[in-house]
Design goal:
single chain, alpha+beta, nine-stranded mixed beta sheet, six-stranded antiparallel beta sheet, 7 helices, 15 strands, 29% strand, globular
């Protein structure tokens, strides 16, 4: 088990040891990869962006025809799991919804410690092409094979993130984040969800709070020529990627857009 893992989980209202927890063999996430999930940061004992995480999970379940789980049940899962596993009030809770062949919806939660949290990231461009646009249109689903393998490649390379391009060498997303590219002329862009990226909570907040950000296709040459490359997700916030494929991004240090995105994500809402 990874060093930041915790050996207790929450399964349909019960706290259970991970080694005892089971799902049915006809569970949709196990059988088909048809499940949705969200991962939220617990900071000072409080879940960040809670309302948005709840909406994301319930909207994903509706789109995937998994049934409904009450908001109160999701809040209970987060509170009970956090209290049982994160006594210092810091960490990450991951919630997943799926259903069995009888149509019963299941909510499973696991927690982990935050682990290392560097202020700057390094990354590699994955050799695995992104799957591109799909039927799930931005939903964070349990069938994440390409992203999971890319993340493992990044860990094996000793870097923090893998950057994924599609078959036409357009930027899509990171294995664990959405990506923003700042040009040397001062513009900042992020790939559209139609490219196949997950509609991350942090990404949505940046677009709401910084109207200058443009959604548009970003070909590989523009990525490599970036003044800044910034990864965002709801757990880590904004992290400047200062080295890509072993080379400096821009001047090799955080720039003004990195700071502005971090400020946009500092306010909880």
């Amino acid at each position: 088990m990874p060093s930041d893992s915790i050996d207790v989980c929450w399964v349909d209202g019960e706290l259970l040891p991970v080694i005892r927890a089971v799902v049915r063999v006809d569970d949709s996430a196990y059988r088909e990869g048809r499940g949705c999930l969200t991962s939220l940061r617990i900071a000072a004992g409080q879940p960040r962006f809670l309302v948005r995480h709840i909406a994301r999970l319930r909207d994903g379940a509706k789109a995937l025809r998994l049934g409904d789980v009450a908001e109160a049940t999701i809040r209970r899962a987060i509170a009970e799991l956090g209290e049982a596993t994160l006594p210092d009030g810091e960490g990450v809770v991951r919630l997943q919804l799926s259903r069995d062949a009888d149509g019963v919806t299941h909510l499973i939660g696991i927690a982990r410690k935050l682990g290392k949290d560097p202020s700057e990231w390094s990354a590699v461009i994955s050799e695995r092409p992104h799957d591109g646009a799909s039927l799930v249109a931005g939903i964070k689903v349990t069938s994440r094979l390409t992203l999971s393998l890319a993340a493992e490649d990044a860990r094996a390379a000793g870097v923090d993130e893998a950057v994924l391009l599609d078959a036409t060498e357009q930027l899509v997303e990171g294995a664990n984040s959405n990506l923003f590219v700042a040009s040397r002329k001062g513009a900042v862009w992020t790939p559209p969800i139609a490219s196949g990226a997950v509609a991350g909570i942090a990404r949505g907040l940046v677009l709401e709070r910084i109207p200058e950000v443009e959604e548009r296709a970003i070909p590989k040459p523009e990525l490599l020529a970036a003044a800044e490359l910034i990864a965002v997700n709801a757990v880590r916030g904004a992290r400047p990627i200062t080295r890509l494929n072993g080379r400096k991004v821009g001047h090799g240090r955080p720039g003004p857009w990195s700071r502005r995105l971090a400020e946009a994500l500092a306010k909880d809402a």
